[in-house]
Amino acid sequence: MESNQKSDLGMQEHGKHNADTLVGSGKRPVGKPIRIGRHKIEHWQIISALMVVYDIVAIILAYFVALWLRFDGIYSAIPRQYLEPYTKVIVPVALVSLAIFFFFRMYNSMWRYASFGELIRTLAGSVVSSIVHSVAITVIFRRMPILYYLLGALLQFILLMSVRFGYRAIQVVRRKHDSAGRGTVSRVMLIGAGSAGQMILRDFKQAKELTDKVVCIIDDNPNKWKRYMEGVPIVGGRDDILWAARQYRVDKIFLTMPSATAEQKRDILSICNETGCELKQLPGMYQFVLDQISVTNMKKVSVEDLLGREPIQADMEEVYSFIAGKTVLVTGGGGSIGSELCRQIAAHAPKQLIIFDVYENNAYSIQLELKKKYPELDLVTLIGSVRDSRRVFQVFDTYRPEIVYHAAAHKHVPLMEDSPCEAIKNNAIGTYKTAYAAMVHGCQRFVLISTDKAVNPTNVMGASKRLCEMIVQSFDHMIKQGKAQEIPQLFTHVGQENADKDGNGLVYQNIRTEFVAVRFGNVLGSNGSVIPLFRKQIEAGGPVTVTHPDIIRYFMTIPEAVSLVMLAGTYARGGEIFVLDMGSPVRIEDLARNMIKLSGYRPDIDIKIEYTGLRPGEKLYEEKLMAEEGLQKTENALIHIGKPIPFDERRFLSQLAELMDAAYSNKEGVIRSLIMSIVSTYKPEGVKPVAAWSGKKARQVHEEDQ
């Protein structure tokens, strides 16, 4: 099986071939160039040369037939005074006509796609050639019969047209015959001449319900060229995909390489994407091992497949054994990341799963899904905001979660620029309240979902997430120093939820909560992702809006993001910031163009791309790690740990109190300056840091704390 899998891949990075490779049974396929010494003659040049010879014969024949018909089809009846001028002038005129035809570009057209433009050029060339012929023979020799001029010109045009448009006519008839015989027939190209490709090919031939036809196969292994698989020619490597798609009139391309790497698939699919054909691929090695290779298992190629990065291979058994039998709380559980967390947690026997979200529609949707799929699951769905400390404390008092995945946050960069106080209230202070409740209620792990926008932030959203990271790092540091009781209760409502209600400090003893953060790039398909926006714009017929032609972003899929979050809960020792090696960044413009192509349209032709300019607080690129942070390896090569940047936790918590006070007082005029004073890497344009705002202390009562 190992050798079959290797041959199935057959797309080695350096296994490219010269375009003149012979294929099939030793015959050179149409369209392949011929190499003579150091000179390479393209196929179209050979066709043009043959057409030149044909045109000379056509001109000579057309005027001879015209003269022959003028005298009743009897050669001996043609007078010598007419036959002699014809024989003397016809060859020179034919050669001059060739120059005319070259001038009208009659030897450069792709006659397979001949259209009205080619018809006009052929007509013009033939008319000019006929005029030259008529003038030359009349002036140099004598006037010929009128029928000779008219019939000769007509026959010449017919002969010139017949060979040029004949091939297209044959193709049209052939397509009609195929359609009449088999209904709508799609012509398929397979990429990968290995075991999986052979299974797919046999499935095509054996399944009566399939009307599609495999017409050619591509494989980068030179040993397979010039050969056939199940009667279908292997016509070349990846460099021949575009040529083969045109040559064999391909409608669909199937990628049958389950063992190929993500980078190899990306390179090949990027080429296939240029053909305009429908693209499908096998899901992966799992189906191959289980012998589930069939045409029905092929899935459409998505934009994620074009990113070219291997998915995270995490040892999820360790993660699931950590979750099994525990009470797990997911804040923001109805969102894109939160709902996927709930799905994966629900599948691995938690004692109880608590979904906590402020948006009831999302919470209700994931609740229905999980109840249907896991009827035995102890599922609790609660509505509430992490900004409401009374509600948060009530949830922790009642259910005592052992693991918390904190996914609740405002993530939309431009909206948070317009409402900076809301970003602080929900992201920073909401995280603080939830973290404090987790600490004093015996939670084992608290996992914060952060973002690469927290690195050297230029916008309020990114700065608020950096504050969240600093909050969990402060909590972890204070707990390890045995100073949990010194963490201020910024949210306290007098007489309602003092964590130390008994006043004996016992609640702060033996605290073992481990706080970690997980830093992500952009998540494909999430509510705030650019992907849904592009899809809506494409469905509406465009234009697709890109802020800047050079803007780049790191991307990951939702399952990858969730795997990393859950893995962080297993690897955590407290205080870490987990960072995913997300590979190479992606240009948003390339992403938009690929999505347009995958939707069956042509960028800038069918769907326009418009550049709208960078939005407030938006960067051209995102960073995964601050320059000051070092990297430590984990058991997974794609997951690293950023060393915490040291800062004065006491001073930070004091500043955070002032920041909270300003946010709840809706002091938007000073909020950015205050953030800048706390987050040293936050450098918005035109803002200077200031001392802490001298307003009402945040430790005091906040009746509006919702």
Principal-axis shape equals elongated
Helicity, in percent? 40-55%
What would you say the CATH architecture of the largest domain is?
Answer: 3-Layer(aba) Sandwich
The CATH class label of the largest domain is Alpha Beta
What is the number of independent domains? 3
Low-confidence stretches: 1-30, 284-292, 694-706
Global structural class: alpha/beta
Description:
This protein has 706 residues and is of the alpha/beta class. It folds into three domains: 2-21 and 184-301, Rossmann fold (3-Layer(aba) Sandwich), CATH 3.40.50.720; 43-176, no CATH class; 316-647, NAD(P)-binding Rossmann-like Domain (Rossmann fold), CATH 3.40.50.720. 44% of the residues lie in helices and 13% in strands. It contains 21 helices and 24 strands. Strand 1 and strand 2 form a beta hairpin. Helix 13 packs parallel to helix 15 and helix 15 (420-440) packs parallel to helix 16. The protein starts with a helix and ends in a 28-residue tail after the last helix.
Quick structural gist:
With 706 residues, the chain is an alpha/beta fold. It is 44% helix and 13% strand. It has 3 domains: 2-21 and 184-301, Rossmann fold (3-Layer(aba) Sandwich); 43-176, no CATH class; 316-647, 3-Layer(aba) Sandwich (Rossmann fold), CATH 3.40.50.720.
